[in-house]
Each structure stands twice: as structure tokens, then as C-alpha cells.
């Protein structure tokens, strides 16, 4: 069997974002998180719900680049918003920028009135971050996206949630998975901290790719490898055409 790739480690880390969770809607953005959610469904989190991103709950677990053929139910907007407002959703969002407290920018780079880059817009990031669990997937960890201060806040971080008081009482940033490692918000004042480094990545490498000091409480562990069953599911069932390697090249 071929050696485990960086993309497969990242898929497994995204799967582990949902460990211990059930009866919630898992909403990933990106190829690697989508494979990760489906891997969780087929292994340790069989009671997750996934949708087609529009209005259908899936009754099967297709490969990442194939459509579902078994609908399990209808998910109109009113029921989606009920899931959101009752905290029964966990999204994995991307981000053009993210800072040490998890403030995220999907909207624009530069001064907001005259941006140098116009991005996706605010989308539902603010709603997501104040209502239910939110994680992030950053496929290219660099100083361009891990910045001291984001140019515009679309999803709020731990500092802004704290300042908002009861209005953000359901705010929960879980973890950030990148092509270099896994981070959470267990640092001082709920700032970003290292959880694990992917195999072959050094502390110096991930720090050099981050625009602010990363906290670590002690020796940093290595992100776990997928076990034999997980590797089979990733390679043969969920992503037989290697879409993951396009998002995280080996």
C-alpha cells in the first residue's frame, strides 16, 4: 500500500472534527472537509446528517465527486434555519484571512470601501459563528491567510464573542485544520494554539507560515494517520479519483 499522503492526514483530521457528535447537520466546504465528514459518517459518527448543500438530506454516502442517489428527506430553508438557531449544525468554513482569535474574512482584502480584492462576501459566516459549532479548513497555511488582524470580519472570533456577551452565548469555535497541522483556541484569552503537526512538519515551519505567535502549552503531538479501514474508505470509496490530492498536493 502506498504511503499515507498529507491530503489523507488532513482528511482524517477533518473527520476527527466530528468525533462524538450525532444528530447534527454537518456542513463542510471544500473537497478535503467533505471527504472528512463522509469518513466520519462511515466510521465513528454514523448519526451525522449531510445534505446536498441545497434542500435535500442525503440517505447515502457517495464519493466526493458523485451525486447522491438516495434522498433521505427534504430540508427547506425554514428547517435549515431551525437547525442553525438551535445549534444543531457544525460547519467547516474556509477563509481568506483568519487571526489569532479566529476572526475570519471571506469578504474583501484591503480597505472595505476600496478593496484591492473582492471575495465571496459575508455569506452566512456571522450567523454560523454565533449560533453553532464552527471549524475552519485552510488548505494552504501561509502568512497571507494567518494574519495579525483580518481586513474585514465576516465570522466572529473568540474576542468579539466575549465582547458581545449573551448575544454570542452559543458561539463555539472548534478547531482549524490546515495542510500543516491542527489548531484550536485553548491559548491565552482563547487565542489560537497548536494541537498537532502533520507528519513531517516542524514547529518552525508552521510558525514561519503564521503571521502571529502560535501558542503551545508543551510538546506538540503529531496528527494521527488514518488506520487501514479509513485509508481504504478514502482511497476506494470516498475519493477514488484523487480529488484530495488536487487540494493538498503531495
What's the gyration radius in Å?
18 Å
Strand order of the biggest β-sheet: 1-4-9-10-11-12-13
Low-confidence stretches: none
Number of strands: 13
* Count of helix runs: 8
Average pLDDT confidence is 95
Shape: globular
For the terminal residues, how far apart are their CA atoms?
Answer: 16 Å
H and E order: HEHEEHEEEEEHEHEEEHEHH
What proportion strand? 15-25%
Oligomer designation = single chain
What attributes does this structure have?
13 strands; seven-stranded mixed sheet; 8 helices; two-stranded antiparallel ribbon; 27% helix; 250 residues; alpha/beta
Tell me what the structure shows.
The chain has about 250 residues and is of the alpha/beta class. About 25% of the residues lie in helices and about 20% in strands. It is built from 8 helices and 13 strands. The protein has helices at about 5-15, 30-40, 75-85, 125-130, 160-165, 205-210, 230-240, 245; strands at about 25-30, 55-60, 70-75, 90-95, 95-100, 105, 110, 115-120, 135-140, 170-180, 180-185, 195, 220. It has a 7-stranded mixed sheet with strand order 1-4-9-10-11-12-13, with helices on both faces. The protein is globular, with a radius of gyration of 18 Å. The model has no long low-confidence stretch (mean pLDDT about 95).
Concise structural overview:
The chain has 250 residues and is α/β, with parallel strands linked by helices.
Helices, strands, pairings?
Layout: H1 6-16, E1 25-28, H2 31-42, E2 56-58, E3 71-74, H3 77-85, E4 89-93, E5 97-98, E6 104-105, E7 108-109, E8 117-118, H4 125-131, E9 133-138, H5 158-164, E10 172-178, E11 181-184, E12 193-197, H6 203-208, E13 221-222, H7 228-238, H8 243-247
Parallel strand pairs: 1-4, 4-9, 9-10, 12-13
Antiparallel strand pairs: 2-3, 5-6, 7-8, 10-11, 11-12
Amino acid at each position: 500500500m502506498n504511503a499515507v499522503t498529507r491530503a489523507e492526514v488532513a482528511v482524517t483530521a477533518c473527520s476527527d472534527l466530528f468525533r462524538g457528535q450525532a444528530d447534527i447537520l454537518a456542513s463542510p466546504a471544500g473537497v478535503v472537509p467533505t471527504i472528512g465528514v463522509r469518513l466520519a459518517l462511515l466510521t465513528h459518527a454514523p448519526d451525522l446528517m449531510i445534505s446536498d448543500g441545497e434542500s435535500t438530506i442525503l440517505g447515502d454516502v457517495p464519493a466526493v465527486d458523485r451525486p447522491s442517489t438516495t434522498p433521505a428527506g427534504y430540508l427547506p430553508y425554514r428547517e435549515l434555519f431551525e437547525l442553525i438557531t438551535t445549534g444543531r449544525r457544525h460547519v467547516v468554513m474556509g477563509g481568506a484571512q483568519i487571526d489569532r482569535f479566529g476572526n475570519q474574512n471571506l469578504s474583501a482584502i484591503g480597505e472595505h470601501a476600496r478593496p484591492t480584492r473582492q471575495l465571496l462576501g459575508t455569506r452566512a459566516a456571522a450567523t454560523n459563528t454565533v449560533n453553532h459549532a464552527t471549524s475552519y479548513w485552510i488548505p494552504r497555511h501561509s502568512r497571507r491567510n494567518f494574519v495579525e488582524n483580518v481586513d474585514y470580519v465576516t465570522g466572529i472570533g473568540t474576542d468579539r464573542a466575549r465582547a458581545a456577551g449573551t448575544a454570542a452565548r452559543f458561539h463555539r469555535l472548534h478547531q482549524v485544520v490546515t495542510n500543516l497541522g491542527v489548531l484550536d483556541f485553548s491559548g491565552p484569552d482563547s487565542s489560537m494554539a497548536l494541537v498537532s503537526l502533520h507528519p513531517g512538519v516542524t514547529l518552525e515551519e508552521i510558525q514561519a507560515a503564521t503571521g502571529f505567535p502560535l501558542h503551545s502549552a508543551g510538546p506538540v503531538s503529531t496528527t494521527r494517520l488514518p488506520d487501514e479501514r479509513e485509508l481504504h474508505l478514502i482511497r476506494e470509496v470516498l475519493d477514488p479519483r484523487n480529488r484530495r490530492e488536487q487540494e493538498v498536493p503531495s
